[in-house]
Design brief:
The protein is 29% helix and 33% strand. By secondary structure, the protein is α+β, with helices and mostly antiparallel strands. Strands 1-2-3-4-5-7-6 form a seven-stranded mixed β-sheet. A hairpin with a 5-residue loop joins β3 and β4.
Length: 172
């Protein structure tokens, strides 16, 4: 699925560096609303984490580029972990959806989101979850426009060191 402005495709290991750049830029924008002194994970931490996860937890990703080949964003999903960290077959987790700042409002987030949901459905998942910072109003509004609803679960202690709110939705 593509648009006249963006090309979206399945990510490969060769895209991980670009994805780490997206994360660095995206998490860096959190400084505008996070507590003073909060620092995002380093680019190297994020890159190493993705390299480890992609080979072990069933993660898959999609990447978006402009028609001219410039990176625009990416999204990542995986099976949700159940008891004893065994992957669930019914619930998928959207773990990343980051768009580079110069493409905010362009529709690329919608395209990435569509691809992730399609991937979840194709893999047989019937519902999905995600965790986003409670202070990330822009992301929360995006998810709510796309039929995600807060579950009421909150995670105050996590690797990101920000309070996270869980969102859930049924898949088509």
């Amino acid at each position: 699925m593509t648009s006249p402005v963006f090309n979206v495709r399945a990510a490969t290991r060769h895209d991980l560096g670009m994805m780490a750049d997206n994360l660095e830029q995206g998490f860096g924008s959190y400084r505008s609303w996070a507590d003073a002194g909060w620092e995002p994970p380093s680019r190297m931490e994020m890159l190493l984490g993705m390299m480890q996860r992609f080979s072990s937890d069933g993660s898959w990703a999609v990447v978006a580029f402009t028609a001219g080949g410039e990176p625009a964003g990416h999204g990542v999903a995986r099976p949700e972990a159940g008891e004893d960290d065994v992957p669930r077959t019914d619930v998928s987790r959207l773990t990343h959806l980051f768009v580079r700042r110069d493409h905010w409002g362009s529709g690329v987030a919608d395209l990435l989101h569509e691809h992730l949901l399609a991937g979840m459905t194709e893999r047989g998942f019937t519902s999905a979850c995600l965790w986003t910072p409670t202070g990330q109003a822009r992301a929360r509004a995006f998810y709510e426009r796309h039929a995600w609803r807060p579950s009421g679960a909150v995670d105050p202690e996590n690797d990101l060191r920000l309070e996270l709110l869980e969102y859930v939705r049924e898949l088509p």
